[in-house]
Amino acid sequence: MFRTVFLTAALMLLTTTTVVSQAAAPAVTGRPNFIAGKDAAVYVWREANGMWRLRLASGSATHTFQGGVSVEKVALTSATLANTEADDVLRRSYPGQAEFELHVGGNDYLDGVDFSAPADAGLCLWGWGSLGKTVRVGPSGALMTLPIDLLGTGACGKSNGSTVPVTPAKPAMKYHPGHYIALNDWDGPVQMIEAVQPGVQGFLKRYTWLSLEPQFGVYDFSQIQTDLVLARDHGMQLVVMIEDKSFDPSVRLTPRYLWESNTLPYLDGGQVAKRWAPWVVERMAALTQAMGARFDSDPSFEGVAFQESAMGFSDAVKKQYGYTPEKYRDAIISVLTNTRKHFPTSQVFWFQNYLEGAQAYIGTIAATVAPLRIAMGGPDILPDSVPLNYHNYPYYEQYKDKMTLFGSIQYDSYKHLHATAGYATKYWTMPEMFRYSRDKLHVKYLFWTRKPKPDPADSYDWTQALPVIKSNPTFN
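RESULT FIELD:
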């Protein structure tokens, strides 16, 4: 049997009989009558409970369907595969859209997708495939041309002079949400293979800017390529984090040509690039352009990430080197915008926590880059942290339906103390951390740092997270 499901941009179906116009949309509630091994087509209908079904019937032949469904203004309530196999894929590029590709071959095969949305939300179905750009809709099986405004609310956009609305122009994006193991700087292939565990979707691996650009304009992506092959061979996705911030005063992670006046010490001990400087923004754009040309088309390359927004410079350093919150705000927006342009089909992960001098600019940045489908999250999940609850976590609630959200279980998360009494454990447990991340922060990607052993001894490490990951492979 030949099947796959890949969310991208459309729905499609048969080619014979009279096509119903958009203005004369038929009833949609009720299953049409068809036999999978006889009646080759894409069928779409709504159940009485509001759940939508899409099915690609083989009709004893090989057929392919690529498509997607978009919802107006709000988020899809759910989107899952139906009657599919291990190699089928369903992707949620952002909360209001699901994309897919279906392949069936021979006999009476039937692949599909189930989705739902709030009752008052408009739905646009779009796509194409071996059966053309038509779909049979509702209990009558009326043949309609894609894209289809399923509820007649104008969800597919304005008509361009015909009965067919304009198809959304956003490119399909790789989207493999779930659990990822965040490897340490010193972790290598052995640790990567060890992290291939049930429920794990992929890895986050750190690469210093210096290692990626050892000389001005000369790029070395050999380690990424090696790690990408390992990830692909084990059915994993790879997220590449570019490091420009160290936590050791003697360690500089930026290219040598940035060391003189564009890599600076900060208060807590370490070095970080002068991120607000136009020259640094320009050089980061050159790096992501080269990386995007090399890796964006690779299906196992899930995305690129940047380190936390916090820098921690003293007031004297900020004054000396011309820092302002406005410059840093604009620089972050430029970096994220450039990276999206260079990685049009990969996730771009923005780790935000603190913006010195104007914390409210985190919200400004989020509002600006949300239409670019930037993923937003933070480096720490610490449920009882007062600063995070006050300054950062409200943005997760505000943008849960506008951006893909993520979170990171880092070293402190494994030893995070409950702030109040009444809990069965001294520290937040791994199941509690997962439920908080999923239910309170609404994350779709969760990066679990590979902490090798508990510290303190009565706290937790990454091995205690593995049963949680195995038991909760999806976040729905």
